[in-house]
Amino acid sequence: FYLTPSQVNSILKANEYSFKVPEFDGKNVSSVLGFDSNQLPANAPIEDRRSAATCLQTRGMLLGVFDGHAGCACAQAVSERLFYYIAVSLLPHETLLEIENAVESGRALLPILQWHKHPNDYFSKEASKLYFNSLRTYWQELIDLNSGETTDVREALINAFKRLDNDISLEAQVGDANSFLNYLVLRVAFSGATACVAHVDGIDLHVANTGDSRAMLGVQEEDGSWSAVNLSYDHNAQNEREVERVKMEHPKSEEKSLVKQDRLLGLLMPFRAFGDVKFKWSIELQKRVIESGPDQLNDNEYTKFIPPNYYTPPYLTAEPEVIHHRLRPQDKFLVLATDGLWETMHRQDVARIVGEYLTGVHHQQPIAVGGYKVTLGQMHGLLTERRARISSVFEDQNAATHLIRHAVGNNEFGTVDHERLSKMLSLPEELARMYRDDITIIVVQFNSHVIGAY
Amino acid sequence: AARMFLRLLSDIQWRAAHLKWRRMTSSQRNTSTTAEPHPVSLPAQAQVVICGGGIMGTSVAYHLSKMGVKDIVLLEQGRLAAGTTRFCAGIVSTARPVSIELKMAHYSNKLYQQLEQETGVQTGYMKTGSISLAQTQDRLISLKRIASSLNVMGIPCEIISPKEVLQFHPLINIHDLVGAMYVPEDALVSSANVSLALATAASRNGVQIHERTCVSHVTIQKGRVTGVETDRGRIQCEFFVNCAGQWAYELGHSGEEPVHIPLHACEHFYLLTHPLKEPLSSSLPTIVDPDGRIYIRNWQGGILSGGFEKNPKPLFTEGRNQLEIQNLQEDWDHFGPLLGALLRRMPGLEALQIMQLVNCPESFTPDMRCIMGESPTARGYFVLAGMNSAGISYGGGAGKYLAEWIVNGYPSENVWPLDLKRFGTLQSSRTFLRHRVMEVMPLMCDLKVPRWDFQTGRQLRTSPLYDRLDAQGARWMEKHGFERVKYFVPPGSDLLDLDHSKTFYKPDWFDIVGSEVKCCKEAVCVIDMSSFTKFEISSTGDQALESLQYLFSNDLDVPVGHVVHTGMLNEKGGYENDCSIARLSKRSFFMISPTDQQVHCWTWLKNRLPDDSNLVMEDVTWKYTALNLIGPRAVDVLSELSYAPMTAEHFPSLFCKEMSVGYANGIRVMSITHTGEPGFVLYIPIEYALHVYNEVMNMGQKYGIRNAGYYALRSLRIEKFFAFWGQDLDAFTTPMECGREFQVKLDKGMEFLGQEALWEQKQNGVYKRFTMFILEDHDTDMDLWPWWGEPIFRNGRYVGKTTSSAYSYTLERHVCLGFVHHFDEKTGEELVVTTDFINQGEYEIDIAGQRFQAKAKLYPFSSLFTQRRRKDEVELSGYQRE
């Protein structure tokens, strides 16, 4: 089974999305030039999600990738809701009051976020009321708390993550009169999702990470080469600190059973996640909710299955680790991606491939004929060669697509091999998951001029 | 780079010419740019100051001085012919789709041919001919259309086969060609030397030329140019001509009162090579390969080849100074695709050695036509710029027309398509220009099929109903920045397909427009016509009436509430504007004119109305949304909505009344339509627009109301022989020539503009006549459709061109409108056109070289008019526009 280059392209480009921060006459005030994002499914349906939005009531832009497991319900819910929680956490007291008053008196609400969505990125219409009510409760509490202090981004991110996970858990315990919604909130709670979210405001970049997705900064060195700086720690068995943390939180007697085969309780790869109430609730609570839940839930072997050696829940948290980084002019881009990318590519290669893509032809030494004797044919050959060297760059108008092309199609020499690409993309649904994971990538490009001016 | 240009410029020639103005500056060419003393100081005053010493400035100086203007000063910030003119490829090509551009290029060619003899300056003029290649059938059609119009102008031109191309140019690969057009008289010149030759001749005629003199701004007082401030002092002057090329925009904005000149520069690349082993003959024709986006000319035994890439690089958006031109970089990667096209076309050139890739900025305009004429805001401020990379082809003709404009008040040809006043301030946004020129530059090579629209810079001016109409399937076109509906795609149609309905043949909206037309004829349609220009003119006493009676040819002293169709004529009786004027009260008038008249009409009136604070003219275009209700049931819809009788007894034709429609009061209702169908136009204060529209649509439901667009309107007006200003009518057409004598009241008891000329025409007859043609043997499904500009033949002889055409769904035939002239068979002299002359001929219309029989009519089919209400407006109630 062979795919033509254009078939390959149409598969790779099906989910690509680009957003350019509106420019006015070349005078750009945002430190973000724009972003490219894309995803390539391996699961059917894909369990990854992505979100991007501009905060309208505060400054800054939010971008995030979410890797779901045991279904996509949780990743979907987090991708819809998390940014609202973050944005609300960042809002000053007066704005919260204003919003609350507007809701109270039925007036139009100040828009909080401007979403930048691919047409395939959907929001659940049915749950919007429920989600809104939970969010409103949150901001009402924030209003009551009114600490009077200016909002710290780090704290806001942590609070938002924890609060949303808490709401997911609560909603599943309370249930809903509407049977569809009832089933939905349960599916959300029983599935899980990791989240890697960046908040960019001027030169302040915060990355909040829960789970094993990763954020990486692309830095251009003085000699023009590219290097990678990690802006997140993976929460999995490879992270010794994380293993230590888990062990610290549980009695010594459980030490052996906590991490088995590099998995939490021998089951879960990420050590932090949203949802996954199977790793958070007590056994009694799990049983009670499942029994009173709809039949679909009862018939599901996975949900009913209690993890082995389950003594002192919770074993899992959604609390993120937050890293703050002050952007410098040499910081050219940020890559947020789910583990599907990092499994196949080293971050150093990611930095180089994206860096060369973004600077593109312009950084190839321009050709000057000068006093040399060059014929039209030679020049044509030279130009064709230059173009071929960057042909995959030319094929892609999107840095994320370009990265996926390399991630899936790279041969042992690190160049894209069409045959390999074609094979990988034509795998039948049931086989695809064996060879690759869902891949979701966001590449954020920074405006060095603006950053340099700070 | 400097070394190469020595050759381009033929420096020897330059020094050899012992010119008075050369001696003023003791400098050597190509030396450093450091300031040198100016031995001759600037004059304190002059009649005309020209800014810019490129091809345009020198051509204007040349023609002005030839016409006897004595006191001319030409200022150049650097060296003569050192800007875009110096870098220009030097191709004089007459194959232009727009008739006035074709005439300019033709004149330029003739002028350059004799220039060397006249001035003694070598211009490098060489008649090589040019060949335009077609890689597709559609391209060949467009070439055939141009060939038809060249031929009737007496410019030799033929369509040739690919094999014949090979006979003219041995290097060409013809395998992918379907045909070509050969224009044997096209030429090559050294553009810088042409410019220098013009300067030399101008100088001999007394023009003072000052180099390295920078105009900082132009002073304007009370709307008139008073002088020019330069870095060397001030010159008082009566006329200023801005020929500053790509800097024209900045120069226009440098003064206190900005003059908006919408143009923007893009980088333009071409390649120069060393000579071939066996040097190419200097008489080898120039090759234009639009499908490959390139042109190729012979150059000193080698070639010069450039093109118009798909991804142009606009520059100087923020404005820069001239020095940067010299520093523009060669960009081979950018030129790569064009080089590929060149080697595909001439594979034999592979071994040819590169000399240089030249990066030469060219200025482009929002509609691909150059900018010429007087500023609407500053009298005496003239502009000639924005040549869209055809400066050398237009230079001679454009300079001539502008000189005539300054001296005579108007050029000898209709230059409205090039007139600065076709633009307003709205096209002057830098962001708009940057985006638009990025579309325009590739368009130089793109195929232009009937009814193409610009895609960039859209949705600038819209009606309040825009979203409502868009949601109902509206497809849009743009005029003067205003979005107007072409037609409505019914739900369920294949939208994508419809958007790609670009063809020289029957378009796929044919049935859609057909059903809209049917609805206009049988029920009622609503068309949003808000884009029309609307003025209100009022006074405290009789000043308004008196002034308008002088400026308009029809009698405006009508009872209050009457609407008059009238021309706004110039001294020669030609249409400066064609409009409808409603008398709102004894002392105030409401005037409606075509959309693109907003600037021109305003300026025309402003310049001619008495300077009287008791006489007020206001542009109220933006205040009203205009809904046109067309069709026999329009009466019913309106009377139900207003509880007022709308029948002919109560509301006769050409009547205007303020009334309520739905809840909204003060809606100005006029019983006019633009198509000859019964109906009304509602002028609605914009805040009521949505309400009235909704009411009309709701109430109209039971009468079968639907939305319609301008394509339906056009079909209706053309089948009824209604002329439209800007398309059919222009400043060189009088009411007598288009059967509108009834709109002229020669005996209205007072003098009016154009009266004398019209009297003369009435007595002596007219030299052209607006005629309607019904195509006889034309197969709508299979044959090429007429557009406009098709030659008309009478008994096998060329008599004129069509000005517009449309398919008439009623007649089930194509209708073309156009002017018939009577050229003497022997001398070619123009003779009076009589009714008999029109009626006693066998006619053919030439569409891309194929002739179709046509029946000529001087009056429309009366059967098409369903109602006649006022006797004096029976035929050609002719006021319409699109």
TrEMBL record, chain A:
Root EC class: hydrolase
Cofactor entry? Mg(2+); Mn(2+)
Give the GO cellular component terms, alphabetically: mitochondrion
Which key words tag this protein in UniProt?
Answer: Acetylation, Calcium, Hydrolase, Magnesium, Metal-binding, Mitochondrion, Protein phosphatase, Transit peptide
Q: Look up the EC number in the record and give it.
A: 3.1.3.43
Reactions mediated catalytically: O-phospho-L-seryl-[pyruvate dehydrogenase E1 alpha subunit] + H2O = L-seryl-[pyruvate dehydrogenase E1 alpha subunit] + phosphate
SUPFAM superfamilies reported for this sequence? PP2C-like
Task: Identify the domain of life.
Answer: Eukaryota
Which residues are in the PPM-type phosphatase domain? 32-446
Note the subunit structure. Answer: Heterodimer of a catalytic (PDP1) and a regulatory (PDPR) subunit.
Family of this protein: Belongs to the PP2C family.
- Please give the PANTHER family that the UniProt record associates with this protein: [PYRUVATE DEHYDROGENASE [ACETYL-TRANSFERRING]]-PHOSPHATASE 1, MITOCHONDRIAL (PTHR13832:SF627), PROTEIN PHOSPHATASE 2C (PTHR13832)
**Entry protein name:** [Pyruvate dehydrogenase [acetyl-transferring]]-phosphatase 1, mitochondrial
- Which species does this protein come from? Illadopsis cleaveri (blackcap illadopsis)
Which gene is the coding source of this polypeptide chain?
Pdp1
UniProtKB/TrEMBL annotation, chain B:
Q: Which residues form the Rhodanese domain?
A: 48-91
Q: Output the superkingdom of the source species.
A: Eukaryota
Determine if Transit peptide is one of this entry's keywords: yes
InterPro entries, per database record: FAD-dep_OxRdtase, FAD/NAD-bd_sf, FAO_M, GcvT/YgfZ/DmdA, GcvT/YgfZ_C, GcvT_C, GCVT_N, Rhodanese-like_dom
Main localization of the protein described in the UniProt heading = mitochondrion
Could you say which protein family the record assigns here? Belongs to the GcvT family.
Q: Quaternary form?
A: Heterodimer of a catalytic (PDP1) and a regulatory (PDPR) subunit.
Question: What is the role of this chain?
Answer: Decreases the sensitivity of PDP1 to magnesium ions, and this inhibition is reversed by the polyamine spermine.
Q: What is this protein called?
A: Pyruvate dehydrogenase phosphatase regulatory subunit, mitochondrial
**Encoded by which gene?**
Pdpr
